[in-house]
């Protein structure tokens, strides 16, 4: 196992201010494994990527504010709590990245507070990762239980679940530090990896494998639940199709019976007719009661509408979950490469991973505001209010001028 607990002798000396010059891809292995930390200035390339990430973070903060305004117009439901929890987790991480990591770096040319910043970021990243993983699982679980088992989450269930998500995420964030692990600089030099992902010895590898296993179990659970949702959709579709065939068959039989009754010289015994299967009935011209086709159709329409709504919501959540897994996969692959080879991934791949993670944070509120009908209506109302306010302010400015 390759292990570097002290700076290599070939490392160039620091500058007069005590800061090293470490371009991406040249950061010592010991720093990437978390054995030591050397203060360093960012190169122009690193500063450029830091500026790009800062722009993405600022966009996400603006979208988070828009999402919060829209949430005030959406009725409170258990599902809304789960959605707000998912977006809030990403928003907190974005605020930390913006004001602790990216913005100060633009002005001072190096990471604020150096090693301290690295450890705080490692803790925040671990909490964010654990909380977001559990939030995605919980969001899928709510859809699964509602659709497959017909059981609806209550506000009490959701509150307890969210509290457990945050409590367990904080415990998981503390655990690697209790095991004497430390956050470490990523190969790109733009941020610090969480302490559970750095390896360096057998204890670090074991903790890392546990972390990868936690991610893997969440993914397997989410995939399994969506396979059950799809199976339920298939079976329900077959039931609806069978109900439609039965409706047409019953309607034809009732029309035939009604015509026979009209031609008969005496009323037929009602027991000789098929028993009505619906509660709403209407008398025929012969006085015999038959279920009406309109009521049967209305009930079938309601059943179909409820089914379509449930699976439309499931498809929306499926798109959001798939976006999460695809966006975070480069970061997980980077961590996996480091753990199982004990060598850092290429710096260019690290750039891809961190950019993809930031893009997910931007896409998350956008998906909710475009896929869900209630949130789309709320978004339109809020944007119309802002447009009216801007026009009002512009009109005042013109009048004063």
Automatic annotation (TrEMBL):
The chain crosses the membrane at residues 50-69, 81-100, 112-130, 162-182, 202-226, 317-339, 351-371. Keywords: G-protein coupled receptor, Membrane, Receptor, Transducer, Transmembrane, Transmembrane helix. The keyword Membrane applies. One of its GO terms (molecular function) is G protein-coupled receptor activity. Residues 59-368 form the G-protein coupled receptors family 1 profile domain. Its main location: membrane. It is found in: Membrane. InterPro entries: GPCR_opsins, GPCR_Rhodpsn, GPCR_Rhodpsn_7TM. GO terms for cellular component: membrane. It is a multi-pass membrane protein. Signal peptide: none annotated. The keyword Chloroplast does not apply. This is G-protein coupled receptors family 1 profile domain-containing protein. It comes from Spizellomyces punctatus (strain DAOM BR117).
